[in-house]
Amino acid sequence: MGRFVAVVLTVLLAIVTLDAQGTTGWKVRVDRSTSASDPDGAGDVKFMAMGAGFHAINPQAAVFWKPGANASGTYTLKGRFTLMKPSDHTNYYGLVFGGSDLEGPNQNYLYFVVAQDGTWLVKRRDGNVATQNVATGPSPAVKKLDATGKSVNALEVRVTPKGTEYLVNGTTVYTAPRTGPAAKTDGLFGMRVNHQLEVQVDGFGISKS
């Protein structure tokens, strides 16, 4: 297993290539918190195959992707995310797409994520520190925690010639035009899970339109 660790500005980033069965070739970029009021948990990020999908245990926030897994043009990216237990505050998890330089200082990607409080978020990462909220809001389509402390949300991104549709459990919560901060949709795709979360991901994949 190779490991690359670099300190850039105030953010400590680790790139790990996974070789466990079912995750061969996948990489993880850890994005450690520098906030004293919102610290990471103890231990290392764990990403493994479980059932027909993947399971992430994240003391720290991380992006998971497979090099060479690119999408361009019109396509649909989807995955069903089960939050296994509640976090003590709002933390998001979901899909990554339109990515580039995910191992370097110029990382760039869009992410479409949800949280246990029933909100969704579309955000762009540009570099090691800079982020930009594209759109966010609450929606009844986002399932909150049930009586067992779990929630299941199916996320879907549909990239079309007219724009990009963002769906939660089959309901469109936002549509982005082909211009602006959400316009770059070609590139690497994967998943993001923020810190202090445990998430099961099933049905993850992409299809061409």
Explain the overall architecture.
This protein is mainly β. Helix content is 0%, strand content 58%. It has strands at 3-8, 11-17, 27-31, 46-50, 53-58, 61-71, 75-83, 93-100, 108-114, 119-126, 131-138, 151-159, 163-168, 171-177, 187-193, 197-208. The strands form two sheets. A nine-stranded antiparallel sheet has the order 1-2-3-6-15-8-9-10-11, with no helix packed on it. Strands 4-5-16-7-12-13-14 form a seven-stranded antiparallel sheet, with no helix packed on it. A hairpin with a 4-residue loop joins strand 10 (119-126) and strand 11 (131-138).
Which structural class is indicated by helix and strand composition?
mainly beta
Radius of gyration over C-alpha positions, nearest whole angstrom: 16 Å
Question: How confident overall, as mean pLDDT?
Answer: 87
In whole angstroms, the N-to-C terminal distance is 36 Å
Indicate the percent of residues in helices. Answer: under 10%
What is the approximate shape?
globular
Summarize the biggest pleated sheet.
9 strands, antiparallel
What is the subunit organization of this protein? single chain
Strand order of the largest sheet: 1-2-3-6-15-8-9-10-11
Number of helices: 0
Q: Which residue ranges are poorly predicted, with pLDDT under 50 across at least 5 consecutive positions?
A: 1-21
Feature tags:
nine-stranded antiparallel β-sheet, 209 residues
Question: What's a concise summary of this model?
Answer:
The chain has strands at residues 3-8, 11-17, 27-31, 46-50, 53-58, 61-71, 75-83, 93-100, 108-114, 119-126, 131-138, 151-159, 163-168, 171-177, 187-193, 197-208. It has 209 residues and is mostly beta strands.
